Amino acid sequence: MATVSTPSVAADAAPFALPQSWTLGDLQRHLGGIPIDRVRLFPLPGTGTADDTETVQRDGERLCELVDGVLVEKPMGTLESLVAMEVAFALRRYLEDHPLGVVLGADGLLQIGPKLVRGPDVSFISWEKFPGRTLPTDRVWAVVPDLVVEVLSPGNTQAEMERKVTDYLSAGTHVVWIIDPATRTALAHTASAAGVGKALLTADDRLTATALLPGLSIPVSTVLR
Fold this sequence. Notes:
- The chain is α+β, with helices and mostly antiparallel strands.
- It has a single domain, classed as tt1808, chain A.
- The chain has helices spanning 24-30, 50-58, 78-97, 158-171, 220-223, and strands at residues 64-67, 70-73, 101-105, 110-113, 116-118, 122-126, 147-151, 175-180, 185-192, 195-201, 206-207, 218-219.
- The strands form three sheets. Strands 3-6-7-8-9-10 form a six-stranded mixed beta sheet, sandwiched between helices. It has a four-stranded antiparallel beta sheet with strand order 2-1-5-4, sandwiched between helices.
- Strand 7 (147-151), helix 4 (158-171) and strand 8 form a beta-alpha-beta unit.
């Protein structure tokens, strides 16, 4: 059974409760209009926990996220995995010279709120989140990532991705990169005291996170080669 480390501030907020009057259509719309075959009926929608996400992963089934207590299968194809690995490799090389934190892949599940567990395709978490630089031994970490990378799959919807960006930024993530292999573009969301900035990047641009990871510069063309 999964155990969850000390919850973040975001995880202490009141969880969303599914209205008893909802239909499957209402639930589907709430989850961003995703294909209904990505929604698991066990445990009953609204009652899922971080333990359930870990159990599905441990049993070798599809990788699932937990959204308001609903287990939702995460679509991930070979191309998306390749793009995610390119970004993760670039981040790992940067961290060899700038040991600021750790990088996780899509199976690195993170509880970022009540009844909310995400598995970013790539995530960076600074050492500041780990007192004494001691990593949790829990299967699901209750830690908000500082930087998140999501690679679009054909099964993703725009509303679903907008919800993900909102979830991350509301929890305290500083930078969110949404990479679209189909259009060879990336959408960079950056949170600051002035608000959230959003920039559309093409293959001629670079992925940067100046305030978080000074000097990091990843060509979009390299990620999508």
